[in-house]
Amino acid sequence: xxxSELLAIDFRLIGPELALAIATCVIMLIASRRxxxxxxxxxxxxxxxxxxxxxxxxxxTPATGFxxxxxxDGFGTIFKLISVAVAIVTVFLGYRxxxxxxxxxxxxxxxxxxxxxxxxxxxxxxNLIVILIGLEIMSVPLYALAGxxxxxxxxxxxxxxxxxxxxxxxxxxxxxxxxxxxATASTDLRDIVNQFNAYRANAExxxxxxxxxxxxxxxxxxxxxxxxxxxxxxxxxxxxxxxAFFSVGPKAAAFAAxxxxxxxxxxxxxxxxxxxxxxxxxxMTVGNVLAIRQDNIKRMxxxxxxxxxxxxxxxxxxxxxxxxxAAVFYLIAYAVFNLGAFAVLTVLETRSGKRSxxxxxxxxxxxxxxxxxxxxxxxxxxxxxxxxxxFFGKYYIFSAVVNEGISANNGFLIALAIIGVLNxxxxxxxxxxxxxTSYFDTTDGAYDRAQVSPAVTFVVALMAVGTLGLGIFPxxxxxxxxxxxxxxx
Amino acid sequence: xxxxxTLVTFLPLLGAVIVALLPSAQHGLIKTxxxxxxxxxxxxxFILYAQFDPLGNGMQFVVNIPWVESMxxxxxxxxxxxxxxxxxxxxxxxxxxxxxxxxxxTTGIKGYFASMLLLTTGMIGVFCALDLFLFYIFWEVMLIPxxxxxxxxxxxxxxxxxxxxxxxxMFGSLLMLVAVIYVYFAYQAQTGDFTFNILRLSEIDLPLxxxxxxxxxxALAFAVKVPLWPLHTWLPDAHVQAPTAGSVILAGVxxxxxxxxxxxxxxxxxxxxxxxxxxxxxxxSVIAIIYGALVSMVQKDIKSLVAFSSVSHMGFVMLxxxxxxxxxxxxxxxQMINHGISTGALFLLVGMIYDxxxxxxxxxxxxxxxxxxxxxxxxxxxxxxxxGLPFTNGFVGEFTILLGAYKANVTxxxxxxxxxxxxxxxxxxxxxxxVWGKVTNPxxxxxxxxxxxxxxxxxxxxxxxFWIGIYPKPLFDRIEPAxxxxxxxxxxxxxxxxxxxxxxxxxDSLEFVTQVDxxxxxxx
Lengths: 489, 524
Known about the structure:
The complex is a heterodimer of chains A (about 500) and B (about 525). The radius of gyration of chain A is 22 Å and the shape is globular. With about 500 residues, chain A is mostly helical. Chain A has a two-stranded antiparallel sheet. In chain A, helix 10 packs across helix 13 (about 295-320) and helix 17 (about 390-405) packs antiparallel against helix 18 (about 410-440). Chain A is about 75% helix and about 0% strand. Chain A has two domains: about 15-175 and about 225-260, no CATH class; about 290-490, no CATH class. With about 525 residues, chain B is mostly helical. Chain B has two domains: about 1-255, no CATH class; about 270-524, no CATH class. Chain B is built from 21 helices and two strands. Chain B has helices spanning about 5-20, 25-50, 80-100, 110-130, 130-140, 145-155, 160-190, 200, 210-225, 235-240, 245-270, 270-295, 300-320, 325-355, 370, 375-385, 395-410, 410-435, 450-470, 475-495, 510-524; strands at about 60-70, 75-80. In chain B, a hairpin with a 4-residue loop joins strand 1 (about 60-70) and strand 2 (about 75-80). The longest helix of chain B is centred in the N-terminal third of the chain and has 34 residues, at about 160-190. The interface of A and B includes residues 386, 432, 439, 475 and 478 of A.
């Protein structure tokens, strides 16, 4: 008997992660060469493509290994795929942006890949310690990415702020895990679930304390109100492609961990739905109300991402398979149209002196008719108009919640759905303000056109097709998210 | 070869896509393609009208294809007489609206005509959808093009009007969405089946409290659209600020989507709640009739006068629906068509003098009859039709509604009739100030009369005004079976199963009449 069999070490299980690690190492090794600027994005794309392909093969064969530290279930694998897809789009988005801003350093791609690797580790384990390690592998490069524009004061502020808040949040998470370990003598969620009642009888106070602290830590990461105050500054200060990445990638990974820990592992904790429900109400409402007051579109999208986290929290509050599947569906849908919106912002910010204030968008429909149409489409999707996937995603969440409310005879959940719907009404106002500015407002003199690179055109077109296509034909994605939730190992 | 309903719904969308792909500088081509698509849609709708069997039972031309199968969402279309007439109205008004914007729209031509066609698809879709989910999608989709039409090509305060329009409508429809979801799961709880089929959803018995809430949520969405007093405040803004064609479509078709929603969804799905709320809705309708008329009286701008008159006229439609006898309801459906024709014509005429004078102030005009005799003639016909003079379409509709109203409750009938008298006052007074008398304003002395294009636009509407006014039977033949089917659902629910020969008019039982009495007392 050797250790490798005992621990079930099978490197195929971590193939996607390894591919990213290798690509990162190669990029770092060549970083000092002159041609590295050209090669780094290509290497990053190659690494991501291999990683994605390997993840696809895992979709069919759920398995655990490494002494149960790695859990390749459908749920984890779908988040691996989301992470890879988001990272690929980010590479496309950033390419010209960083050249124009004179920031095209190979390290950017290495950091991006490590963060993606962290997201995968985090989504792909049922062990609290591994989740925490994944969280840290993801977060540390993100701090550097937020402050990547060294010459910009705002970017520096963004990096420092994100680092301080992130470190603080990790402290909470770690403390929470420690208490959970104290209460259960295990860091494996499956153990905790199996013997939950015994643990609860033994050490309920520690269990509750541990749950609360872990929840607070993750609430910081997903930017749930009242742990959201870092988001606007970080989003506004970071380079726009990085912001795009922040708003969908790490958020999705954090939600994956959150779902695994709280809806699977600690779902039996008394009052957990109410805690999530209150968090959801606060997050939606504060996010939406503050978004109205913004004059900068990046800041508006920052608050909007808070609000969208709130909608997903509504699903988490309801729990149960349909709601979790709806949450996963919404995370994917949100990634599609939000990346699309950020892609448009990225193009327009390659013009000098632009920082995505609303007034810069006046006359967009004349200067860039196609970008304006795409941006309008993404805004309609964000506000949940049919036939975009934004509508279907919201419909799926609220219908799952109402369903749970009816079958459990829980009026709180119905109320949650109504509050969610009213919130999406508030959001119509500020999303349409973008459309209003780009279509109804006019500029004095000629519109300052931006140069649109083929890479970004591709991203915008792809996301626009996805926004409409997944909205009109959601069946495939539905069955994918359903099967993902079904296979929890 | 796709089926006729799919064709009539998506032909305009196809046109919109083609228009969007054309180069923006090709103005002539864009306009021609749009008009051709619109006319083709009209032809398809005429074929639909010809093939429709007035004696047929239930829904016709049904298409039912699974769409999102795992959620029970189907691509399910079908029409009865009510939907048929509304579709034909839509497809007649669309080419007219497009033709009316031929010269008056000068910027963003491509976007404008594509929006118009997209809007048409949304409207026709609402009238054919038999799947609640599909209905909701069409219902919401049509907001977007209208938002752009008002916001880009509208008047001075267009941005405000566009945003107000969207926010009002959205507020209503989002609560409707929650209600839609609730009904869906309530059906599943009772039958174990997932469906959005409107016809099947109305087969279940919902508890009374749930019905009240659900009716409220649906009714809010529809009442905003109608618009029923006091939810009408978006309407004057949207109508006055929208370009002429936008106002024509808004008044002609969009408002009907609200009343159609009441007929198609609220009444069959929540019959008990409908009966319980009927007195209140009748009360609000009577207020709308009188309030709309009084406010019209004091308007200084012709377009806002016509806009407020819509509040009054749509009040009549709502009244007709909720007195819930055959006359009232048939009259209401006919009046939906009539209002589309006569108010559409009025908005077109207002647009024509606005193109010439760039003002709509009543005080700016006077004596137009001597300068523009053809215009004056058309204007008179539209005005008289709006008032409801015998031999025009308005008379038939309003008379039938009033007949139903008197049958249900005399007080309501009398109050509603004052609306007709007031309508005559404000319309004729406006007409007198604009058209009769001497030309007092030198700016009006040299106005050119209507050209060929403008006459072509108006002639079909005038023909319809007299045709429906003199011989409404073909329309009633198609409306009545649908209305009877609707009333039958209500009676069955109230009195248990009834045999098919019994007249649906038995709804106005004594109990109901007393309810109406109480409601009107409250309102007084």
